[in-house]
Amino acid sequence: MLHEAKLASLTDLDSIFKLMQHMQRDEPWTESFDETRVRYNLSELLQNPAYGLIYLVSNANRAIAYLVICFDYSLEYRGKGAWVDELFVEPDDRQRGIGACLLDLAESASREHGAQFLHLEVDHGNRAIELYRRRGFVDHKRYLMTKQLQPQK
What we know:
- By secondary structure, the chain is of the alpha+beta class.
- It has a single domain (5-134), classed as 3-Layer(aba) Sandwich (Aminopeptidase).
- Helix content is 31%, strand content 25%.
- It is built from 4 helices and 5 strands.
């Protein structure tokens, strides 16, 4: 990779958050992007590597890309697993191999942390789908279904 990816720390929170805001313009989340909640959850993730890892790529002290890996546990998938929760490269820095290198990093970091499988979810029609397929990710004949859990009263 032309630019080194570094494991992010709490001091990188503002840089990552800014990139997350840029990603929302490109590919908004299904859930609302609540700044206070996102900053809190980002801080939690940066301080708890058992939850996952964040890598940041910079060029001339300007953050240009980030990768978020989150961990889970599944009987079907042989134990600990990992998810590419977010991968974003600034539009002006795309087509330079940064995304592919971040996928390689996701594989190696997930393997090093004991994950048996690496998953990702991507919107239908996302231009990166072919990159993911070339890197060995396969489509499932399943739906991803989600239910928001409300606190018990």
